[in-house]
Amino acid sequence: MMTTANKAATNGQGAMLTPPVVSPEEWEAARQLLLVKEKAHTRARDALAAERRRMPWMEVTKTYAFEVPQGKTSGKASLLDLFQGRRQLILYRAFFEPGVFGWPDHACRGCSMVADQVAHVSHLNARDTTLVFASRAPQADIARLKQRMGWNIPWVTITDSFDADFGVDEWHGTNVFFRDGTRVFRTYLIKSRGDEQMGGTWNYLDITPLGRQEVWEDSPAGYPQTPTYKWWNWNDNYEEGSEPDKKWVEITDVGEIALRAPGAQ
Predict the structure, then answer these.
(1) Beta strand pairing status for 65-70 and 73-78?
(2) Omega before 138 within 30 of 0, i.e. cis
(3) How does pLDDT run across 133-184, given as a tens digit for each residue?
(4) Three-state SS across the chain?
(5) Tens digit of pLDDT for each residue in 43-63?
(6) Is-contact 68 185, C-beta < 8 A?
(7) How much is the pTM?
(8) Cβ(158)–Cβ(34) under 8 Å?
(9) In the β-sheet with 173-180, what is the strand arrangement from edge to edge?
């Protein structure tokens, strides 16, 4: 059966060759066939994240200084300071500086799209993880840009060779670090098209050394893990040391039992 889209030319490229239109039963059968591959893709992604958690670490011994907001002015912070006391740091190099298309009104269009899709950082914070953006623009310009675009991501200014040392001086990229006391380790880097998937809480956690920290994950012995779903919360309701709400535990227990029942989808 030919659809309207088959008949209409698009952008001067001729008619779209769209898929056939089928019955509800045929559509569901096709979906089930594709679902097998999608589940395999999900399992492969989980296995890759498990392998990522076993990557070797590189200790960062060089000292770096960043310009950070401090009241109505700005101050200095070290790489260690950027963790904000948490164990994991995800640091995205965003291009907002002289010479970048859009300056001084906008950051790079691609980096801005990444910023637009970042989930509420409180969910990462609840997993002992801090997300920070870094550019070479002064803090006054960053503050102005964040206000204009409605971004609440912590955003610092690079003042030294940090970007060159960590492979993000000429292109955007996301570095991941782990803190053990005062020692800092680089654990991962994702860049270029790899950054396309960034923005969601789960994808961010999947590139960290501790992962999502849920009991189903394949992680090395001794890694922190808590029951699945139980730590999830409203972004304004996380409290340090708080226990999962009893009603939420009951709801998720029922849901998980149903999900894992034989024949469940």
Answers:
(1) antiparallel
(2) no
(3) 999 999 999 999 999 999 999 999 999 999 999 999 999 999 999 999 999 9
(4) CCCHHHHCECCCCCECCCCCCCCHHHHHHHHHHHHHHHHHHHHHHHHHHHHHCCCCCEEECCCCEEEEEECCEEEEEEHHHHCCCCCEEEEEECCCCCCCCCCCCCCCHHHHHHHHCCCCCHHHHCCCEEEEEEECCCHHHHHHHHHHHCCCCCEEEECCCHHHHCCCCCCCEEEEEEEECCEEEEEEEEEHHHHHHECEHHHHHHCCCCCCCECCCCCCCCCCCECCCCCCCCCCCCCCCCCCCHHHHHHHHHHHHHHCCCCCC
(5) 999 999 999 999 999 999 999
(6) no
(7) 0.90
(8) no
(9) 58-60, 183-191, 173-180, 88-93, 129-135, 155-158, 65-70, 73-78
CB 133, CB 115: distance < 8 Å: yes
Under 8 Å between Cβ of 77 and 156: yes
Alpha-carbon torsion 44, 48, 50, 51, what sign? positive
Beta bridge partners of 62: none
pLDDT at 95: 97
Residue 35 burial class via C-beta count within 10 angstroms: exposed 0-12, middle 13-18, buried 19 and up: exposed
pLDDT > 70? residue 203: yes
Dihedral (C-alpha) 149, 152, 154, 157: value to the nearest 10 degrees?
A: 20
- CA 103 – CA 3 distance, rounded (Å): 45
Tokens of 237: 């309701």
Tokens of 129: 């993880």
* Token code pair at residue 191: 């860049």
The amino acid sitting at 178 is F
Q: How many CB atoms lie within 10 A of CB 264?
A: 8
What's the mean pLDDT when you consider all of the chain?
Answer: 92
In terms of residues, how long is the chain? Answer: 265
